[in-house]
Amino acid sequence: MADVVIYTKPGCPYCAAAKEHYQKKRIAFDEINVIDNAAAQRKLLALSGGERIVPVIVDKGEVIVGWNGG
After folding, report:
1. CATH class of the domain defined by 4-65
2. For the chain, what are the domain ranges?
3. Which DSSP helix (H) or strand (E) runs through 7?
4. Residue 9: enclosing H or E segment and its boundaries?
5. Nearest to 31 by CA among 11, 53, 5, 56
């Protein structure tokens, strides 16, 4: 398992930008698609304080809700 986990949904431009950021920095990450995955949706809501927003990024234990750029 990578040090970074990114919770995403298909077609999300902010998710794509976050993934591109980590790829450019050559930082490995695990991507979890929350669509049709109830357990992942519950985890995302817990991490985001109940906000239905993607991406939610867990980077070495730090939770980042949304993406404004690297």
Report:
1. alpha beta
2. 4-65
3. strand 4-8
4. none
5. 5
Classify the phi-psi angles of 49: left when phi > 0, otherwise alpha if psi is within -120 to 50, otherwise beta: left
Between vectors from CA 53 to CA 52 and to CA 55, what angle results, nearest 5°? 140
- Write out pLDDT tens, residues 20-59: 999 999 999 999 999 999 999 999 999 999 999 999 999 9
- Read off the pTM: 0.93
Q: Which residue is it, tokens 């070495």?
A: 60
Q: What is the mean pLDDT of residues 60-66?
A: 94
Q: Is 30 helix (H, G, I), strand (E, B) or coil?
A: strand
pLDDT of residue 21: 96
Strands 62-65 and 4-8: unpaired
Q: In the predicted model, is pLDDT for residue 70 greater than 70?
A: no
